[in-house]
Specification:
Its main location: membrane. Helices cover 46% and strands 21% of the residues. The chain is built from 22 helices and 21 strands. Helix 3 packs parallel to helix 4, helix 3 crosses helix 12 and helix 13 packs parallel to helix 14. It folds into two domains: 169 residues, 2-enoyl-CoA Hydratase, Chain A, domain 1 (Alpha-Beta Complex); 247 residues, 2-enoyl-CoA Hydratase, Chain A, domain 1 (Alpha-Beta Complex), CATH 3.90.226.10.
Length: 587
């Protein structure tokens, strides 16, 4: 018995000491990763930037050392980091060229991939080379890589080149099956954000605008690829109609879409010949390494602040919010930039399909005050529509990518009536005692009565009128001119320049140069805000969210998407300025 107690205590002590050792080792590992994260690497001569197009593309993203260490199927990619690295590759004499690995980009809008492509086009002005290789090319990846000096495909690979499509999901019948009916209030015949919940097909007005912006974006892509590959646009359209994806790889070489076919070892030999590295590891530098080295360069001259606003526009952030434009935080940050005398101009980088009209108005107000203190230039990303345009229109100058989706000047309200679900499906019944006629207004247990619906529509009308007035004031237009462009109509960035909703087509660098010009400064540097949260903050919260979302998906099955949409609607403020829906047109 004594031996049993002795061995048990020894085992427990051993486990305790091992736990302490592992805890200390974990702390040291985290400290090491934090040190590595902050340290700028040195770039060796004859290095090559390795640009891997694989993962979820976002405007900006925190570093993820754990993902880098253990690997991730679809890592999060930062557009800002990619552009910084490409600019660094252009300026750094130790970088000889860029090697692109084409895989799968998720969440990449046409404007975002064009941003990368334009950065690569600017890089080529340095006389350095770009080589692209892919086992398979998605349409977005091919569009980016079409700027390369040499496009290489695996002999058994494919190129997805098939045009563009938009295919929204309509939940109306499904919601009716579970006893939910949507009460809709809106202004604008093109304001079709409510259609997935109230219809089973696109309205004629919505089909018109989607057809317009899809064709406009596709024409921009055709023009860009045609210039880079010296292939006529008509031929590129023919290739898209001929299911090029399933054509033999040799045919892609013959028609000029691809330069050569080889396996990855052939690409390695090509890079060795370029770098003169016959043996050992190729001198490849990652995007993170080169971006860190570039940003570590001493800053000189006046300061231009680049402020990122991307995601849904919300009144305030909750613990479940991710990638949102939180009005409280953004307004506070813009006030700080306004009061900071070292900041000579501000570039507001907007990538948002809109959200709360109230939150949009608060941010608009701060942008207007900021403009009175110093130049403000908006750089539009993938989307700057509805609420995204609302917060942009007060700027001195607006720069949009030709393929940006913008406009969508309109307001709507969407309130679910779950009375049938509660009573007929769940067997829940309600009785009410109230002191005033509308004391129970907004309850899910009953639909709006006619007088309430009339008041709600009036509220929406006033919100729309205010929106158009804000645009007219910011763009120096008459209200009548704005109303002709409004009605919830979505425009591309190219169309927006033509109709006066934007000033010029270009990317973030275009906007920065314009901000410097308006501020009358020549020697300047940029600083980015807000700084992404460190990777270790919220690590366990994210794991908790992922676990709960997975559990909900497994439990709800096909009901998960509509019920999550319903949950999101319930959390929205009543007045919404939001793009019709997030388009899914990148193949």
């Amino acid at each position: 018995m004594k031996d049993f107690v002795k061995y048990t205590l020894a085992t427990l002590c051993g486990l305790f000491l091992a736990g302490i050792a592992l805890f200390i080792l974990g702390i040291l590992s985290i400290a090491g990763m934090m040190t590595m994260e902050s340290a700028a690497p040195s770039i060796k001569p004859q290095s090559v930037l390795r640009l891997t197009l694989n993962g979820e593309l976002q405007e900006d993203a925190p570093n993820d050392p754990l993902g880098d260490l253990f690997g991730s199927t679809y890592p999060t990619l930062s557009l800002r980091e990619i552009q910084t690295a490409i600019q660094g590759a252009k300026e750094n004499p130790n970088i000889d060229g860029i090697y692109i690995e084409a895989q799968t980009l998720l969440g990449a809008t046409p404007a975002m991939i064009r941003d990368i492509r334009e950065s690569l086009a600017d890089f080529k002005k340095s006389g350095k080379y770009i080589i692209a290789y892919g086992d398979n090319y998605t349409q977005g990846a091919y569009y980016i890589c079409s700027i390369a000096d040499s496009i290489i495909l695996n002999p058994q690979g494919q190129v997805n080149w098939c045009g563009m499509a938009s295919q929204p999901i309509f939940y109306k019948d499904l919601l009716e099956k579970i006893g939910i009916k949507m009460q809709v209030f809106k202004v604008g015949s093109y304001k079709s954000a409510v259609e997935p919940f109230t219809a089973t097909r696109m309205s004629d007005a919505n089909r018109e605008q989607v057809t317009s912006y899809l064709n406009d974006i596709w024409q921009t892509m055709l023009t860009d690829v045609s210039r880079s590959r010296s292939i006529k646009k008509d031929l590129l359209n023919e290739y898209a109609d001929s299911m090029l994806t399933f054509r033999p790889a040799e045919e892609l070489v013959r028609n000029g879409m691809i330069d050569s076919l080889c396996y990855i070892d052939g690409v390695s030999r090509m890079l060795r010949a370029k770098t003169g590295k016959d043996k050992g590891a190729l001198p490849l530098v990652s995007v993170k390494e080169l971006a860190a080295a570039t940003e570590a360069t001493p800053k000189k001259g006046d300061k231009i602040a680049v402020y990122y606003a991307y995601g849904d526009i919300v009144d305030r952030k909750t613990e479940w919010s991710e990638n949102v434009i939180d009005a409280e935080t953004v307004c506070r940050d813009l006030r700080t930039l306004r009061e900071d005398e070292s900041v000579k101009a501000v570039v507001l980088r907007v990538n948002s399909g809109g959200g709360s009209a109230y939150a949009s108005e608060q941010i608009w107000h701060e942008v207007k005050l900021l403009r009175e203190a110093k130049p403000v230039v908006v750089s539009m990303g993938g989307m700057a529509a509805s609420g995204g345009y609302y917060i942009s229109c007060a700027a001195n100058y607006i720069v949009a990518e030709p393929t940006t989706l913008t406009g969508s000047i309109g307001i709507f309200g969407l309130i679910p009536d779950a009375s049938q679900l509660l009573s007929d499906k769940l067997g829940l019944h309600f009785d009410v005692v109230k002191t005033n006629a509308h004391a129970d207004f907004g309850t899910l247990a009953r639909p709006f009565n006619p007088s309430e619906a009339q008041m709600m529509q009036g509220y929406i009308q006033r919100g729309y009128k205010l929106f158009t007035e804000r645009v007219a004031d910011g763009r120096n237009m008459k209200t009548g001119q704005v109303e002709k462009l409004a009605e919830g109509r979505v425009w591309t960035g190219r169309q927006a320049v033509e109709n006066g909703l934007a000033d010029a087509n270009g990317n973030l660098q275009t906007a920065i140069k314009k901000a410097a010009s308006l501020a009358q400064i020549k020697d300047y540097h940029t600083e980015y805000a807000p700084t992404p949260s460190p990777w270790y903050e919220g690590l366990f919260d994210q794991q908790k969210k992922d676990y709960l979302n997975t559990a909900l998906q497994e439990t709800l099955g096909t009901y998960y998407a509509p019920l999550m949409s319903l949950r999101q609607i319930r959390q929205m403020s009543v007045l919404q300025a939001r793009i019709p829906y997030e388009p899914n047109f990148i193949n």
